[in-house]
């Protein structure tokens, strides 16, 4: 461990005022923080997601401190832990000092001792090399692919890296009178969630999934109350961008603004958005705001194996970033879950997005 050790490792509850103060200090001192690592985000996860917040605090021999936001569900030793839970952004660690592979390895080792059935971590893709170097043999590495826009040089430089198709589509949207509203009001949430439900139905058709099942899964993952809860906790960091054409909402995206911005959800009225190219204007507007607000990167989220999604993100200068999710389990729960899900998909004739 190169002489490094965890001087103090303990489980601190969010209702411990001192622990929450430490978390806030580390969060505000970290120049690479994402909104989904903030204490306010944890409050939203607990309030809207039916999880318990169990952040892990660490202090190293060199005086550096770190926190890993962790969320659990279950009873006693039958709990499962996530950082973060599915559909709740990126997790991992925050630190007020330099995190080395040896330090992170000691955190991995501590997490193996938690009284849980398993632990799953989805870290910031930009920290992929650090996590890969620190991972211990007991952990399974699950390959992922994200796309990220480097905002260095300011918006003029970033815009110069847009593909010509993006410029063409942005001009078309403006020529057709597409207007963009930005905020976190109840009205914008209503418009966004309405289009999200349209997207559930569209994804069901493309994936050969029963519409009722798609709506149930979508609403369970992304209910309206989830977004109103996040907006209430996150304030101005929760930013909805809604594009309107001919007085109707055509597309909307949700951005979590922070030192690293995160495009975390998108929804469209497909015919209207396709005709007006509203999505391109939305992304350009959000990227410009991220530059203006001082973000260093603009995360465009998980891409998976979809060629069409990758091409869309690359239009805005996003670079493919391979990374991994990490899983530790005492029993092969994920493998059994994968077998069950695979069987259901085969029965339904489910198809992944192209």
UniProtKB/TrEMBL annotation:
Q: Which Gene3D superfamilies match?
A: 3.40.630.30
Q: Which residues form the BioF2-like acetyltransferase domain?
A: 164-302
- Lineage top rank: taxon: Bacteria
Q: Name one Pfam family in it.
A: Acetyltransf_6
* Gene Ontology MF terms in the entry: transferase activity
Which keywords accompany this UniProt record?
Transferase
Which SUPFAM superfamilies does this one have?
Answer: Acyl-CoA N-acyltransferases (Nat)
Q: What's the protein name?
A: GNAT family N-acetyltransferase
């Amino acid at each position: 461990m190169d002489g490094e050790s965890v001087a103090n490792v303990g489980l601190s509850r969010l209702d411990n005022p001192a622990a929450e103060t430490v978390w806030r200090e580390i969060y505000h001192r970290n120049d690479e923080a994402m909104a989904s690592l903030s204490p306010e985000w944890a409050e939203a996860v607990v309030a809207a997601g039916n999880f318990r917040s169990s952040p892990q605090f660490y202090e190293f021999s060199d005086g550096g401190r770190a926190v890993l936001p962790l969320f659990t569900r279950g009873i006693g030793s039958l709990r499962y832990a996530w950082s973060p839970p599915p559909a709740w952004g990126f997790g991992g660690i925050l630190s007020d000092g330099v995190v080395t592979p040896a330090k992170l390895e000691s955190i991995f080792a501590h997490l193996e001792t938690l009284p849980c059935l398993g632990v799953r971590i989805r870290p910031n893709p930009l920290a992929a090399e650090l996590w890969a170097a620190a991972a211990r043999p007991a952990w399974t590495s699950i390959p992922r692919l994200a796309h990220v826009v480097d905002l260095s040089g300011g918006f003029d430089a970033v815009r110069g890296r847009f593909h010509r198709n993006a410029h063409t589509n942005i001009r078309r949207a403006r020529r057709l009178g597409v207007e963009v509203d930005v905020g976190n009001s109840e009205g914008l949430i209503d418009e966004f969630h309405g289009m999200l439900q349209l997207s559930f139905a569209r994804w069901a058709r493309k994936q050969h999934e029963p519409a009722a099942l798609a709506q149930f899964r979508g609403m369970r993952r992304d209910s309206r109350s989830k977004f109103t809860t996040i907006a209430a906790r996150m304030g101005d960091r929760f930013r909805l961008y809604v594009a309107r054409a001919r007085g109707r909402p055509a597309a909307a995206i949700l951005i979590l603004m922070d030192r690293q911005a995160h495009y975390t959800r998108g929804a469209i009225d497909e015919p209207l958005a396709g005709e007006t190219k509203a999505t391109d204007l939305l992304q350009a507007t959000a990227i410009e705001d991220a530059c203006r607000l001082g973000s260093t990167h603009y995360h465009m989220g998980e891409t998976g194996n979809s060629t069409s999604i990758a091409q869309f993100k690359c239009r805005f200068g996003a670079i493919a970033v391979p990374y991994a999710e990490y899983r530790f389990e005492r029993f092969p729960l994920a493998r059994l879950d994968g077998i069950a899900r695979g069987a259901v998909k085969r029965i339904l004739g489910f198809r992944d997005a192209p």
